[in-house]
Amino acid sequence: MERLFSIEEVQRLQKTLSEARNPQRLRVRICMTGCRAYGAVEIRDAFKAMIDEKGLTTKVDLLETGCHGFCARAPVVAIDPHGFFYQQISPRDVPQIVQTSLIEGKPVEKLLYTHPQTGEPVALEKDVPFYREQMKIVLRNCGQIDPTRIEDYIARDGYLPLAKVLSSMSPEEVIGEVVRSGLRGRGGAGFPTGNKWKFARNAQGDVKYIICNADEGDPGAFMDRAVLEGDPHTVLEGMLIAAYAIGAPKGYVYVRAEYPIAVTHIKKAVADAKAMGLLGQKILGTHFNFEVKIKEGAGAFVCGEETALIASIEGRRGMPRTRPPFPAIAGLWGKPTNINNVETFANIPPIIHKGGSWYASLGTEKSKGTKIFALAGKINNTGLVEVPMGITLERIIFDIGGGIPGGKKFKAAQTGGPSGGCIPSSLLNLPIDYDSLTAAGAIMGSGGLIITDENTCMVDMAKFFLTFTQSESCGRCVPCRLGTKRMLEILQRITEGTGELSDLETLKELAPMIKDTSLCGLGQTTPNPVLTTLNYFLDEYKAHIEEKRCPAGVCKALIRYQIDPETCTGCGVCRKACPQKAISGKAKEPHTLDQALCIKCAICYNECKFDAIKII
Amino acid sequence: MAEILDLSRLDNLFEEHQGEDGALIPVLQEAQNIYGYLPEEVLRCISQKLKVPLSKIYGVVTFYAQFYLDPRGRHVIKSCQGTACHVRGAKGVLESLIRELKVKPGGTTADLNFSLETVACVGTCFLAPVMMIDKDYHSKLTPKRAVDVLKKYSQKPEREEA
């Protein structure tokens, strides 16, 4: 890795690398991040061995990439230049892919994705409905490059935006461009990024800091993980540009330790950028200096809040403090500090490269650009999708997400995780942006999108989120520490069948108090899941309270399992699986379940192949 | 635990982080990597070397979910209780693990083979419900499958001895 001493050198290198990249060359792109859990390592090894065996080593590039997005179909592999897309493959399929696709240039039909509507195989990645509807700006390199090779990033215009900034833009012009883009913080609250930078730029201080918030704690969100794993340099370049604009010589990436691959990749990116003179002292021969350190989080959700995160970097308990002063004035070690989320930083290089006006032409009036959503829960195409702001929920869930599995009915989508709220089916046509979601009682949040179906109990969902926020409450302020505890106790009662109608009034009274008086974002948003479920699913609360019934069949105290003698074949699977020995019966005769022994563990329900176990 | 701890294994750590602001958490993380948990003697040693009061260190250690004051099992089970896992039945999986191992989340089995933990999200929502055992992901679990998976890990030490 050669050190670059000037802006011209990086531009020259970019040109060389880009030209050397033959678009007609055979490439195998394997997701080596999320797909690892489904055996991507073995698949890579199989490709390596097969490519060797066929004498193709010099003709084929085997690329270990980050996430392709379509996690539901893991492990996934794409073949260039054709653009074939293979899914759910095993090492056994590799010889056939090598022979048919790499040597003969044809798709292997049986490994292709089947179009859910037409039932026809879809050969090309770009034609798969899941990909076709997306617009990839932040994820432009994810799944396309080897994230551990800085050359791959540079070849795709990487570090050109930095060169542009250093050679032809003043810090004020950079901020102006970001303001023009209309970019808002992707961490959740949606504060305009350009303004945030301006505050930090104008703040007085001998030293200033940049922090990248990669403490993705929102359960059900994994886009920051994917970006750090799949394209760490874009985050780093975003930080560099911010550092130049604000005048910060030092930066930190505060990353969750639960993301080991992300930690490894960002550390490698920092080391490589430093070795090439893109980071450190006298960057590209200019007077711009910027050093980056990686800090691993230690497991506390509240550290996603910026003042708590700062406390954690300083080596203290991660507890938030009152604002003002805002971190832009007095942040890390009391110095002016600018904190942005991973996805926010990743948006910066494309904004500088193509201009703020280009970015502002995408999205809605007040929410510009694209947003990555992590689709999960009861949805067919679990994975990561990047879509323009303003797209409707319906298109995300049904066109891209492929709808609900098992022919079940869509019930609600939860956005913003524990701080957000649920959006019911009546709002499926809602164009998604910061303001529309807030108006619906939810929030954009970091982009987790959990889909629920008719078998999800909304009271249980609200209780689930409150259990989480309750246990993650740092305990500093009373409304969050005690208020959420009281709300949780009420929800507990309702799900156990001992709730009263007056409980609903108490919830409605407590919620705004907690929202208004909590110290930080965690407490201020904790009541959202309760409020939105109360608002959209009041009937379900009432069924729990008045009829002692859980319509979705989830709340244990209110349901019973029963074996349907008509459907039961007497196969004995449930009898053998029951940990309580509560099921009895002779082979090939309908079994019975002793309610006195049953602990409602649902094992029989899950194991029965004939759907003979009913929830009543 | 009568064994004597070799505190000299911390020396490199102190050297590496000498004079660094906010070194406490990284030092604790790396110390835990060395010893598997944070014994009192280690915390006392860190307190002296970093000149941070033991009370403050205790405050930090008990604040973050990742630090442990007690020895842990040979295998660490992280049962994900994130939203995606929750709606796909993670609670039943956890309850099944609790029944099988006879420990609560945060606990370690008497034979020190398993520590059972819950995590808020491991960021692999497409595998839901998921648990991690050490570095392996086990996906799309049911209460029964989760217990079946444990068997593989229960047998490992015996095989090594044989």
Which features characterize this protein?
heterodimer; A: 616 residues; alpha/beta; Glutaredoxin; Rossmann fold; Ubiquitin-like (UB roll); 5 domains; 4-stranded mixed β-sheet; 19 strands; 14% strand; globular; B: 162 residues; alpha+beta; disordered C terminus
Structural commentary:
The complex is a heterodimer of chains A (616) and B (162). With 616 residues, chain A is an alpha/beta fold. Chain A folds into 5 domains: 96 residues, Glutaredoxin; 210 residues, 3-Layer(aba) Sandwich (Rossmann fold), CATH 3.40.50.11540; 84 residues, Ubiquitin-like (UB roll) (Roll); 89 residues, de novo design (two linked rop proteins) (Up-down Bundle), CATH 1.20.1440.230; 56 residues, Alpha-Beta Plaits. A 5-stranded mixed β-sheet of chain A has the order 12-11-15-13-14. In chain A, strand 8, helix 11 and strand 9 form a beta-alpha-beta unit. The radius of gyration of chain A is 26 Å and the shape is globular. In chain B, strand 3 and strand 4 form a beta hairpin. Chain B has a 4-stranded mixed β-sheet, with helices on one face. Chain B is 46% helix and 11% strand. The C terminus of chain B is likely disordered. With 162 residues, chain B is an alpha+beta fold. Chain B has 2 domains: 57 residues; 87 residues, Glutaredoxin, CATH 3.40.30.10. In chain B, helix 2 packs antiparallel against helix 3 and helix 6 crosses helix 7. Chains A and B meet through strand 11, strand 15, helix 17 and helix 24 of A and helix 2, helix 4, helix 5 and helix 6 of B.
